[in-house]
Amino acid sequence: MNVINQNGTVYIDNKEYSTLNGNPALTALQRIYNAEGYADTITATIPNYKYYRRDHLGNNREVWVANTKKTIQRTQYYPSGLPWASNTGDNPGQQERKYNGKEFDEMNGYDTYDYGARGYYAAMGRFTSVDPHAEKYYSKSPYIYCLDNPVKLIDADGRDPGDFFGSEDNAAKDWGKYYNGKSIAEGKEYASTIYSVDKDGKSGYTYTVAAPGKHDGVTESLPPSDKPTKAIIHSHGKYENEFKEGNDLFSKTDLNHCDDKKADGYLAAPDGTLQKYDTKKREISDIKIKLPSDPNDPKSPDYVAPIPINTQTLVPIPPLVPVPLPSPLAPKPFGLLIDK
């Protein structure tokens, strides 16, 4: 008779239990997690409160104990998320939630992060199964992580990549910094949808991977079907003389589209400004940020105006005076001797 090993860890909501042979009498609460870290030694009079120190991608770099004010774990990562070889005192086994805050399962050399919808093998920078939303990214491999841009993007649950922002405006600012320069360089518009997401018990916003358009129009990429649209953001490409001031303003088509969608609108313009259209107030305002701009746009901070030439100060060049050629010398007569 084969005996199944039921020793291990059990997760219920934000609580972690250790179990022995699956016996409820031998199951004990080990940790309680929250958005900033966790508490352990729960049965003690004073539990240990441990906090994560994170980078901009939400990677847990250090674990700090509030009770003792000491750092008990340090982790450095390759861009793909694979932890570096640890140094003395790093204590890699102290806790397993690391890259993007996901649990790193090293048992039997598995070395895979649990992203919920699927596992992520950081040594290769690839997921171990197909993206459940692969039909949205038909031009990309269904196994790649964050569209092959792990320094810029995160993947909250193994389905759709995207950053996490506390407000629509912050999501729009990040989008503008990332896409406006690309839009200007390529001379075509880009557009995305900003939608709400939840992460670690917090509500926030992210945006879809931008869809490219033409120089005079674009249709935004759509969010997952269960995520309502909060705002639409698009760029206007490079500065074009035919559009004049319209290069840096919402068009009537832009505004009508936002009204139809009942969603706020953002415009990243060639002059480097970011504008917001509030559909409820029907007002347009500027968001304080300097985006990449087109130096050919007269309103751009990088614009260099041409220097007019004052023709009155030019010294006229006199016409060339023809120089007469010298007359040819008369030939000497042949056969004439001259005595000295």
Structural class: mainly beta
The pLDDT mean sits at 85
Q: Alpha-carbon distance between the termini? A: 147 Å
Net shape: elongated
Could you state the order of secondary-structure elements as H and E?
A: EEEEEEEEEEEHEEEEHEEE
- Largest pleated sheet: 7 strands, antiparallel
Please give a quick description of this structure.
With 340 residues, this protein is mainly β. Helices cover 9% and strands 26% of the residues. Among the domains are: 54-148, no CATH class; 168-287.
Secondary-structure map with pairings?
Layout: E1 8-12, E2 15-19, E3 28-34, E4 37-40, E5 48-54, E6 60-65, E7 70-74, E8 103-105, E9 112-114, E10 119-121, E11 126-127, H1 168-186, E12 190-199, E13 202-207, E14 211-212, E15 229-235, H2 252-261, E16 264-268, E17 274-278, E18 283-287
Parallel strand pairs: 15-16
Antiparallel strand pairs: 1-2, 2-3, 3-4, 4-5, 5-6, 6-7, 8-9, 9-10, 10-11, 12-13, 12-14, 12-15, 16-17, 17-18
Description:
Helix content is 9%, strand content 26%. Among the domains are: 54-148, no CATH class; 168-287. With 340 residues, the protein is mainly beta. It is elongated. Mean pLDDT is 85; it is low at 334-340. The relative contact order is 0.07. The chain has two helices and 18 strands.
What descriptive keywords fit this protein?
disordered C terminus; 340 residues; mainly beta; elongated
